[in-house]
Amino acid sequence: MKIHIITIFPESFGAYLDSSVIWRAKKNWLIEINLYKLNDFSKDKFKHVDDKAFWTHWQVISPEPLDKAINYIFDKLWKRIPVIYMSPSWKVLSDTKVQIFSKKLYEFIIICWHYEWIDQRIIDLYVDYEVSIWKYVLTSWELASMVLIDALARYIPWVLWNPLSLEEESFSLKLNGKKEFPHYTRPRNFRWLEVPDVLVSWNHKEIDEWKKNNLK
Fold it and tell me: What are 190's strand-pairing partners?
């Protein structure tokens, strides 16, 4: 999977992209992430990329630098690729959508931004998918894009140590979209709370029944 991220603050991705599962995926060439600083595409001598929206009191990302950044990537690749806009428009991400995206999208652009919106004309011209991580507004949509990347990466073959872990986890088809059952580990007794007897019984039929009855 190849991801191109347009952002005002590429440095905000540093620690996240260089640690844990994403770092291992990058190291093994399972995922490639390219960062583009939006200010580099501004004609303004101070590299501004925003302006006051008409008839409102807030700032909006201007269309010109975003247009240049998107077309720079298209030209670099010699092709047009899907564009995702991290949006507060309430088209909320779900595990089902993540799975669809992971199968459908191999190379794509993510637009990150600050404030609440970008100029609508960029959405009309280029955006294929608007994605929200929930019904609230952020000041840093880099955070939202990291959530999307993390969710997608888990469905890339060989990114997780044990691919079978995807089969029985919260919101999976095997669990009928429900949240997982409780989990326990050693010690069996902790602060007077015991691991349920059935989980140490080795009776697979009863354990499966316990799991089914304890879905949330």
Answer: 193
92 — phi, psi (to 5°)? -75, 135
What are the tens digits of pLDDT across the range 60-98?
Answer: 889 999 999 999 999 999 999 999 999 887 679 998 899
Cα separation, 180 vs 183, in Å, equals 9
Q: Which of 36, 129, 28, 43 is nearest to 77 (CA)?
A: 36
Residue span of the structural domain in which 208 resides: 167-213
DSSP 95: H
For residue 205, give the CATH number of its domain.
1.10.1270.20
Q: Residue 45: which pLDDT band, with cuts at 50, 70 and 90?
A: confident
Number of domains in the chain: 2
- Please determine, for residue 25, whether its predicted confidence score (pLDDT) is greater than 90: yes
Asked whether the bond before 88 is cis by omega within 30 degrees of 0, the reply is: no
Residues 6 or more apart whose CB falls under 8 angstroms from that of 62 comprise: 48, 49, 50, 51, 119
Task: Say whether both 33 and 125 belong to one domain.
Answer: yes
Q: How is residue 193 written in tokens?
A: 């709370």
pLDDT category, 164, cuts 50, 70, 90?
A: low
Q: Which of 101, 132, 134, 98 is nearest to 117 (CA)?
A: 132
State the pTM of this model. 0.87
> What is the C-alpha to C-alpha distance for residues 124 and 116, in angstroms, rounded to an integer?
17
Longest dimension (CA), the chain: 71
